[in-house]
Amino acid sequence: MTALNLTNVCKSFGSVEVLKDINLTVEEGEFVVFVGPSGCGKSTLLRVIAGLEDATKGTVNIGGTVVNSIPPAKRGIAMVFQSYALYPHLSVRDNMALCLKQEKQPKLVIEERVNKAVRMLDLGAYIDRRPSDLSGGQRQRVAIGRAIVREPKLFLFDEPLSNLDAALRMNTRIEIAELHRTLSASMIYVTHDQTEAMTLADKIVVLRDGRVEQVGSPMELYNNPANQFVAGFLGSPA
Ligand code: ADP
Ligand code: MG
């Protein structure tokens, strides 16, 4: 079973075509990284997959179901944003539990899943704090925890580390790689950081101006870039 299948996906805002005929498959358990310059449509593509934007044309199929008309909360996905997007008035625990409460999950299930995520992300000491009393790295871990508790089949990360300093970026990157192994979920990860792309990805999708420029493993793209653009992006000598 494929985790995600995009067929001829297009997205326009007014007369501006931002995504142009995107075809893409993510296999179950695969870690796929989207790279490309600022403004090429990476976030828009994630938002279309998540259902935060509607595709203008084409089909979004998640886990074998066409989800074009299914709302975000019912797509079996969870998204982590660059800006964390935590609720400032809620504690760490309540930020993580909120979605599950809205889904009307039993109290025990909520407690168990939140506790498990807290252990995985080493957030035990912060569970009653508000986001404003946390560092950037801790906030991003809470945001990741909030995604984990929903037990999604597909995680979507939109440049989750770009607000963190270099050391923290490396630690959190390693944590995300560990999560991928532990959870055996499919993940799509947007970044413009070559190191993140090369170390995390099973498969890299290079986007340029709303189109898929090249798809391949990090080594394939590094050794065999289709053109100067891809070569420049992955830092290999052309
Ligand atoms: P990236 O994440 O690769 O930097 P985005 O997906 O954010 O790129 O944006 C791609 C293009 O779509 C940009 O030109 C941006 O200005 C435009 N865009 C994104 N969202 C909207 C929107 N809601 N309305 C109009 N234009 C948008
Ligand atoms: Mg973006």
UniProtKB/TrEMBL annotation:
Keyword Transport: yes
Ranges of residues in domain ABC transporter: 4-234
Whole-protein coverage range: 1 to 238 of 336
Keywords: ATP-binding, Nucleotide-binding, Transport
GO cellular component: ATP-binding cassette (ABC) transporter complex, substrate-binding subunit-containing; maltose transport complex
The protein, known as: Carbohydrate ABC transporter ATP-binding protein, CUT1 family
GO molecular function: ABC-type maltose transporter activity; ATP binding; ATP hydrolysis activity
Organism for this UniProt entry: Litoreibacter ascidiaceicola
Family: Belongs to the ABC transporter superfamily.
